[in-house]
Amino acid sequence: MISEQQFREDVVLKYTDVIGENLGGHVIKVSDEWFAKAENLIKPKPPIRDATRFTHAGAWYDGWETRRHNQEEADYVIIRMGVSSAKLIGCEVDTAFFNGNHAPHISVEAAFLESEKSDKIEHAQWDTVIAKVECGPSQRHFFVRDSLTDKAYTHVRLRMYPDGGIARFRLYGTVLPVLPHDRSAIMDTASVKNGGVAIRVSDQHFGVASNLLLPGRGHDMSDGWETKRSREPGHVDWVIVRLGARTAVRDVVIDTAHFRGNFPQYTNVKGIDVESDDKVPAYNSSEWKVLVGDSKAAPDKEHTYPVDNHPVCSHVMLTIIPDGGVKRFRVIGTLA
To answer: 316, 294 in Cβ contact below 8 A?
Structure first.
């Protein structure tokens, strides 16, 4: 287990949470969920606690909780990833508010399933991603492998030994998108489903930058990227996105849906073509090429900007001036 800061630097800013509900991840099978539903594990918002709330089953918990006295080795939940497939690197297991009823140990396994029929699941080859490890009560645990799994997977199985409760589960990896054979096909390579990752960001006080790359337009301000108010003249906020593939950029979409009193005043977009993340220059470097110049933003609106000459980019940077919130960021083009 490593620290939260190390996990953020080594995993969150380099990989994607491939099982999140907001990405399309969903539970397909669970051994038991008497006290609290397993679907809560992959909800995007942090867990909460209401000690005054009770249900027919007992005390209400914002997480997954099974019955006591499990006679099997472990309870389990199987989750279909929200992406086509992914290689896996690590996970977060949060036992927030489970104290005295938390899962004492967990393990994570994965499989590539072409069918979700019961017999296929039962006879699948489940490979170990994170071996059985101890968990403590009411805390966040961060587990990382030495390297990505050799294989790509579609489904994951979280086991807790022998029973208990877990509030949230995040599983990170590299998305392996289904790319078109037709190189003239138009696609959004910033999309998380196509392998886009927000690798650097100036600030994400109210909403994380990775939300920019999610499918759809979301449901409120909570699932966008929003920075704190700036007070210094000349301040800007920015996010750098590694595209899922080198892209000849045709259009850029900046969506301020639901941001009505806190949208940016202006935005711009720049791009660069480099071999790896460590070759990406600083946000204020002159090496960046302007794709879309400073453009006046409007509240609660999808802004589409054509990009001249279709430059090839591996990474793009969205800058908001001076601060504010953006819901989605799309980079539309063809594979280079």
So the answer is: no
Q: List the one residue out of 173, 158, 141, 163 whose CA is nearest residue 76.
A: 158
Distance (Å, whole) CA 312 – CA 291: 10
From 3.40.50.11720, 2.40.170.20, 3.30.750.24, 2.60.120.260, which CATH number describes the 4-176 domain? 2.60.120.260
> What torsion do the CA atoms of 266, 319, 270, 173 make, to the nearest 10 degrees?
-140
pTM, two decimal places: 0.93
Start-to-end C-alpha separation, the chain: 39
Phi, psi of 292 (to 5 degrees): -135, 120
The amino acid that residue 256 corresponds to is: T
Q: Which CATH class is domain 186-335?
A: mainly beta
pLDDT in tens, 128-170: 999 999 999 999 999 999 999 999 999 999 999 999 999 999 9
